[in-house]
Amino acid sequence: MSTQGLRARKKQQTREQISHRATELFLERGFDKVTIAEVAAAADVAKMTVTNYFPRKEDLALDLGAIFVEQLAAIVRDRAPGQSALAALREAYLAAVAAQDPVIGFSGAPFAKMITDSAALTARLREFHDDREATLARTLADETGAAPDDITPRVAAAQLAGVHRVLFEEILRRTLAGQDGSEIAAALTGYTETAFAALEPALGGYAVR
């Protein structure tokens, strides 16, 4: 492996170590009661190292945030020939439900409670939802060749991201109510079909590759 590859792997290992130790502390004591200095000590790194990898404390807990924000746009960019944005997103979401993917909200009760107990984490999660919608809107505009003043991509993104937000909140609600992953996945499969079917009349033929 090249020196550059080894360096990248070491950086990723450090990032994962910091995130892992931070999550342990957050789950044990609550997000708002843990300091960056305490995370650094637990991960055996300097405080500056923590902030270099995670400029915001909230992102230590929500370390899949970047993946979350890019997820919908990436699915649309990778859709199959002849497939609409709606169809691609529905297919991918059903697969994520079956896999109980943490990115869509399958995080377990302790993690879900940690988020909802913290106003800072709840606010950061809302920002991620907003950023994901905006990223999807830009991708839809690019994929459809929309003019700069065409509002259609933003309207479509609001609907598509809105469905994902509702389903995320439903997973969170059921998790906090004590349901296990299998129960939630069974319920979400039906909810997913209902939610995406509601968008079919408007978006079924939109952004077809």
Explain this structure to me?
InterPro entries: Homeodomain-like_sf (IPR009057), HTH-type_TetR-like_transc_reg (IPR050109), HTH_TetR (IPR001647). Residues 35-54 bind DNA. Pfam families: TetR_N (PF00440). The chain has 209 residues and is mainly alpha-helical. It has 2 domains: 3-60, Arc Repressor Mutant, subunit A, CATH 1.10.10.60; 65-203, Tetracycline Repressor, domain 2 (Orthogonal Bundle). It is 75% helix and 0% strand. It has helices at 3-29, 36-43, 47-53, 58-61, 65-77, 85-99, 109-116, 119-144, 152-176, 181-203. Helix 1 (3-29) packs across helix 2 (36-43) and helix 9 (152-176) runs antiparallel to helix 10. It is globular, with a radius of gyration of 19 Å.
| Rg (CA only) | 19 Å
Question: Into which percent range does the helicity of residues fall?
Answer: over 70%
Count of beta strands: 0
Q: Mind summarizing the main beta sheet? A: none
Unreliable stretches (pLDDT < 50, length at least 5) are none
Mean pLDDT over the residues: 96
Which of globular, elongated, flat, extended, rod-shaped describes the shape? globular
Return the string of H and E elements. HHHHHHHHHH
Number of domains: 2
CATH class of the largest domain: Mainly Alpha
